[in-house]
Amino acid sequence: MTDIAGLATRRAALTMLDAVLRRGDALDQVEARACRHLELPEDKAMARAIAAETLRHMVDLDALIDARTRQPLADDAKARTVLRMMLAQALVLKTPAHAVVATGLELLSGGPRRLAHGVFGALMRGDPALPEKPTLPETVAQRWRDHWGDAMVEAASIGLAKAPPIDITLRDPETAAHPGGTELIPGHIRLSESGPVPAMPGYAEGAWWVQNISAALPARLLGNGAGRSVYDLCAAPGGKTMQLAVKGWQVTALDLSEKRNRRLSENLERTGLAANIITMDALRWQPEAQADAVLLDAPCTATGIFRRHPDVLHRISERDIADRAQLQAKMLEQAAAWLKPGGHLLYAVCSLEPEEGEAQIGQFLDAHSDFLINAVTPDELPDGLSPTDEGYVRILPHHLAELGGMDGFFIARMQREN
Ligand SMILES: C[S@@+](CC[C@H](N)C(=O)[O-])C[C@H]1O[C@@H](n2cnc3c(N)ncnc32)[C@H](O)[C@@H]1O
To answer: Is 237 within any annotated ligand binding site?
Structure first.
């Protein structure tokens, strides 16, 4: 029997959605396994796009489905997930309805095909539209409203509407070899085009790497290394390692993941930069000497990168936030001990949760009287972004919104006194 065209791609998307919604896995983590049967890169990209767009618009897709079902479908019913996917394809990815129906119903083979067919058909006859600003899941909206206010939730919803623009860090700010765009801060460009990165001018020669402007700030805040040593903790795939190496730091880059460290190696090779790479759990590492600086890009809930990874909106719970905060506190404790007196400790997370940011550093400073905040100054940041009263960098979805926004981040720079 020949398979329906595109069915394997939809199966892979369904596997990804199941893993995210039922098991709380990250989309990135499950993508390779879910797509292992797909040969063509464009099929893999399509499977990822179906899963990601379903998650981006899920609350509004559910509202459409609920308006057309007499008995509400269970939240985790396969028919609901398949209908969400079918609608995301038809309304967001503009896949022709016949292809959506043929593959969608086949996914429900032996299940409620007639129901799904009926609901999808009735909805499409009504010419449905999704709101311009996708609705955030209520638990997330409520949490962010409590922390940051209504305007932040509104900006997050606008930001969620589409994947963000691509930012790049130039190896040499004088280089001419890049695709062109808007300079956000010297050496960092927001590209005016999207598309396959490896084919863009300068990429293969190592003239630049992809790095959201928010993620580019922590390493910048350590300044020039002039041969001094830095421990780059949780370093892979190496965006910050490369920035530090360019600035003359002697970098020791440590990460738990062998696979991600392989990407770090490839990135260093492509850009012609060097670092000492260590694959190990940061909690078990024991360096031989203290360093002049430590950059801790701590593992976090990653809720700040919800535009590129909308799965975080559906799988991160209060419990996850508390667990991550606990891990970060342990890592901070270690990092602090590995720093020479007078050295700088740079802490960063791509999270919009204060437990992983302001509260984390507040507790650290309370417990470490030998560490002081080294306040970030406005001239160290892109126009449109200012340090907080405490001297931290807190990046929210409204920052640089007119240029396409920034990833949510928290950054603190501290100095060890003795
Ligand atoms: C936010 S990413 C790092 C991004 C990287 N700093 C960059 O700029 O390209 C977090 C990293 O933490 C690593 N990680 C998580 N837990 C770790 C641990 N216990 N020890 C070391 N690395 C860990 C992950 O493998 C992941 O690569």
So the answer is: yes
What's the CATH architecture for 7-125?
A: Orthogonal Bundle (1.10)
Tell me the per-residue pLDDT of 295-335, one tens digit each, with 9 for 90 and over: 999 999 999 999 999 999 999 999 999 999 999 999 999 99
Which of helix, strand or coil describes residue 185? strand
Domain with CATH 3.40.50.150 in the chain: 208-416
Q: Which of 64, 350, 393, 400 is catalytic?
A: 350
Architecture (CATH level 2) of domain 208-416:
3-Layer(aba) Sandwich (3.40)
In the chain, which residues fall in CATH 1.10.940.10?
A: 7-125
Give CA–CA dist 203/133, Å, rounded.
33
| pLDDT tens profile 111-127 | 898 999 999 999 999 99
Cα–Cα distances (Å) from 16 to 214, 313, 353, in that order, read 28, 15, 25
- Helix ranges (H only) for 221-302 are 239-246, 258-271
pTM: 0.95
Mutate to test the pocket of ligand 1, among 242, 244, 255, 309 (most ligand atoms within 8 A of CB): 255
Read off the pLDDT of each residue in 186-191 and give the average, rounded to a whole number. 94
Task: State which ligand 1 atom lies nearest to the alpha carbon of 327.
Answer: 19
Measured over all CA atoms, what is the biggest interatomic distance in the chain, rounded to whole angstroms? 73
Query: Average pLDDT, whole number, for the chain?
Result: 95
86 CA → ligand 1 middle, Å: 35
